[in-house]
Amino acid sequence: MDLEGRLGGASPSSEEVRMARAIAVSAVSEALMRGESHVSFRGFRVDAARLPGAHQMRSVVRVELVVRLDGHIIDRETAEILPLHFD
User: Fold this and answer.
1) From residue 20, how far is each of 1, 59, 80 by CA, in Å?
2) 3-state class of 57 per DSSP?
3) Is-contact 12 69, C-beta < 8 A?
4) What was the pLDDT predicted at 65?
5) How far, CA to CA in Å, does 29 sit from each of 24, 61, 72?
6) Rounded to the nearest 5°, which phi and psi values hold at 36?
7) How far apart (Å, rounded) are the C-alpha atoms in residues 67 and 47?
8) How many CB atoms lie within 10 A of CB 41?
9) What is the pLDDT along the chain (87 residues), one digit of tens a residue?
10) What's 9's DSSP letter?
11) Radius of gyration of the chain (CA)
12) Whole-prediction pTM value?
């Protein structure tokens, strides 16, 4: 992804992008447990929110993930996740 061209500024370093990915994974996990997560890091903002309702057959949970850099949305995804249950 060419962030420099899209944002009109310097691109983040590869280390910053890796950190943003790790934060996104953690945010999705937290959203599954708590309903939402909001994390900021060096111009990145990662928001994850569990969406209402679950698929009746599989108990799939939907989570929306939005990643911003300097206020610009650089990625938005909705994931369907089958939660693991440890009883």
Assistant:
1) 14, 28, 20
2) coil
3) yes
4) 96
5) 9, 11, 23
6) -165, 165
7) 7
8) 12
9) 444 444 556 688 889 889 999 999 999 999 988 999 999 998 899 999 999 875 555 678 899 999 999 999 999 999 998 877 644
10) S
11) 15
12) 0.76
